Amino acid sequence: MAPSKSLFILFLWARSLLLPLPLLAQSQSIIPVASLLPPDSPNAGATLFEYERLQLTEELVQRVREQEKTAKYGSFFAFGDLDSPKAMLKNGSCKLFPGDKSWPKEDLWDAFDNLLGGALIPTTPIAAPCYKNWGLYDSEKCAAVIANWTNPYLHTLILVNPYTNEADPTSVAFQIFQGRTCLPTSNLNGTCTLGGYPAYAVNISNVAQIQLAVNFARNANIRLVIKNTGHCYLGKSGGAGALSVWTHSLKDIELIDDYKVGEYEGKALKLGAGVTVREVYLAAHRHGVTALGGICDTVGYAGGYIAGGGHTLLSGIYGMAADQVMALEAVTADGKKITASQMSHPDLCWALRGGGGSTFAIVTSIIIRVHPKLPVTLSSFSFNSTLVGKEAFWLGVRAYFELFIPFTDAGTYSYFWIYNTNGTYSMDMKPFWALNHTIASFNDLVQPWFQKLSHLGIPFTPATKSYPEFWPAFDEAWPPGSGAVGGWTTRPGNRLFPRANWEDPVKFNQTFSAIQESSKSGYRLGGYHQTPRNRAHVSNAVNTAWRTAISFLILGINVAGDATPAEMGAASAELEDALEPWRRIAPNGEGGGSYLNEADIGEPDWQSAFYGENYPRLRELKDKWDLEGVF
What we know:
This protein has 631 residues and is of the alpha+beta class.
């Protein structure tokens, strides 16, 4: 792709030694401290996106140091040294917090903003229009925020918020780990504070801005967090007193018709760091291929989703989404832009695919292998205990669980919830997802279960439909904005259960009993039958428990909306106790584990639970790539 006129002008400016470095006083459309690098990225087997070609260089940092207006700030934007003694000394040191004596002064923040081209945004919580203490009270905007609070598009997807007409770079999908300090309210006497929101965000439009942000955070010793959409049960894209790198504007998507890396030769998609699951699916469909992704359309694809491994509707045929990643462009903790692939920094490439979000580097783009279009059959239905009683209900649920081996061997996947509402039980299949199946083959597969439900007298009416390809099936099952967010009254935890627990009748009875007792105790259960295995035969940092899993189940406990810190602590203890029977029947090291994107933050032995056999190597690579604790 040819550079635009403005980029070409910038290139000439950056290469000229005669022009002085400007310190901008107003927002600009381009960053003043960037060089336009050549487009080739041979170690990735593809060209760079234009925003990746705009990079900070040593020469430009030196010019910042030499200019009279910026000389005193120059050290804050210098590149780091991953092996320096200074880094070793600073590793693990406490980060500065707003109000601390050494917290950067306003003139330094202004200089940083000017070098960014006006991309620095002081945080204003999304619900601030509902509070007078921010001086922004607006009854109409507040009403819009309240009315749309559970819509994921309000928090995560739209650059300019459609309800308030204001950009919001820092809101997160689930508020409980933000601290619940600025919730939507009609109470005019309430108080809104930043809580776990970052202090500032950088609205990223090119790699040079990411490099400046990393260098500034590292040299100023302030916390750095990374956000695309903020869709995370545990709020990992937030951080009190932090500088946030907001990648949501990096929306480039490109099809590579003939991608060759290692043994792979075929089609691939190159994806910018700001794309979402829905955007990936739609782009793949338009290019005549299928890409792996999750069920929530507002999830940011190239960042936390891939870093967590990426469990997916297509896992029964292709494995995990992280298994499809061939190369990544990234900015490391020293502020350098690198390519991570099998040919360049293969250890970092290994870690970034499943080794945990915001841990090793900031990904600016990824390249994924894609697959042919395949037919899909979906079936949604529900049943409950109202007419048949609790015993028959649980026999019907057990009949489903008993079939997980043939269901997963057939490449299928499900998403379901089991509710206990004051002793009345219900199961909601949302849906049963049968990739590469016709209605006839699907009916043959589920016939034993459906026959058992009918024998038990359980009324249910499956809504089953076949689609010629993936995208229309997904779009109908999960339309835009589906999946409520914004909650602050649920604590999640989960467990990965291995196939071995189904192959051994004694273990299966113990497993199902533990799951059933959790529901009887009043906890909400959700989950999937799926078995990703390592179908692509790759080496990456995906939790090894996923490779033997046959089911992923989530347990949620309720907490009061106005819970005190002590009550939140009690809820944490309750969650750990509630998950303990699951841990005992599916222990770490025996195929059990936990998916870190929807986990209990108090998970004991989290190293093994979240990372399986990979934790020791990941710990070593963390020390190699981020000894200073930038991420």
